[in-house]
Amino acid sequence: MTSSPRPPRPARGVPDATVARLPVYLRALAALADEGLSTVSSDELATAAGVTSAKVRKDLSHLGSWGTRGVGYDVEALASHITRELGLDERRSVVIVGIGNLGRALAGYGGFASRGFHIAGLVDADQQRQGEMVHGQRIRPYDQLGDIVREHAVRFGVIATPADAAQDVADAMVDSGVTSILNFAPVVLNVPDNVDVRRVDLATELQILSFHHVRKGGEPVGVLTGVATS
Amino acid sequence: MTSSPRPPRPARGVPDATVARLPVYLRALAALADEGLSTVSSDELATAAGVTSAKVRKDLSHLGSWGTRGVGYDVEALASHITRELGLDERRSVVIVGIGNLGRALAGYGGFASRGFHIAGLVDADQQRQGEMVHGQRIRPYDQLGDIVREHAVRFGVIATPADAAQDVADAMVDSGVTSILNFAPVVLNVPDNVDVRRVDLATELQILSFHHVRKGGEPVGVLTGVATS
DNA sequence: CTTGGCTCGTGAACGGTTTCACGAGGGGTA
DNA sequence: TACCCCTCGTGAAACCGTTCACGAGCCAAG
To answer: What is the pLDDT of residue B6?
Structure first.
């Protein structure tokens, strides 16, 4: 409570591409801190994060100057700065709808809890699943979604339902106050402008890999012929 | 076997940004076909895919001219063209390593099977899981990974293990012939240049949402104070 | 105090992506 | 057949992101 309630407001317009990399830096910094390092150069951080050092410096420059010339960045200070920048210093409540395998994986994903996300509720429409305990949380019926969101002032919703349920879920979330949605269902959601949606499609990623595979090797992969190579 | 073994090779340098959208178009087209439409305008397809019509036209132009001026695109023809372009007309074998909740979700994900991906094997290092049936496949021990890859000429690997196992798994995959890896573990993998890696980090996505949340509402969400809003 | 070496921070150049605007070329109708 | 309307395909322009190159600043050593 002694720290400034409204920090120096260091960054203004951080580019989207940079924002997308901040979590990666954050994770890399955590790993470096675990190794006992107290300082990193942009080069080291770049390697750990899988990007170029120029990118690291440019990205971090958007958050203000936090490095020391000739030395590098202070691991702990930089990590906490990025944490604040991402808003991860405040605890944020999340509701997950659709507790199939994916929903369970998300509910138990350490990356959520360790980054300030608190799971306020697990919701599923399937009667059979209701009441079941998943990672310390009871699965609750779909019609309680609104109550959960309102009660815990939830602003983040995760949709891990089948495609045909996703839009309904999104509508219900928005109605009760959710303003940021992470959508794993393979549909384009229709939401008001003030609501943020990010879509993650597991199949899409494999298809992109497939494209590059064709481009690179182009190898036909003889499933039918089944003849071993040479 | 009657179709040309080396198709017209229609597109040359398709931009990455376009490639990333092709699977989305493909899905949108499938949905439109289900509705019985035989033709779409770039505008309709754009709406269905959640992008702009200009993007659709530019993207599709990279694949060659497949639309009819004044009419639009033939749904079926375009879908099959994109399918071919992505290399999804050939069956591709995939191995999934790490059969926790995420691995199970992936194993059962319809988006894989319906897009030409055939799951050649599920692998887990946990003795307790081995032998268990998941979506019609038996979970096999980790030391059989190489055999599975070689036997089925697998070129696609999915890593759904904890972070500390991911690099070992990647090494084993690469050693036995995998050239495209989809990595869900929150680490940067070290692989040879000829191997393609795409990383999907579930926590990252929420953190990006969090950033935008701070920027937009900035609402503090009083978890500690716990006072209901006004 | 001065020197040398290292690394950040940043303007400028570059390349890729998106948007814009409009001409070209189809289909339908009279 | 001739006309109109509609939508694709595509250069040009605007925008964004990455890479490059180098000066500024800090630390350590002598």
So the answer is: 34
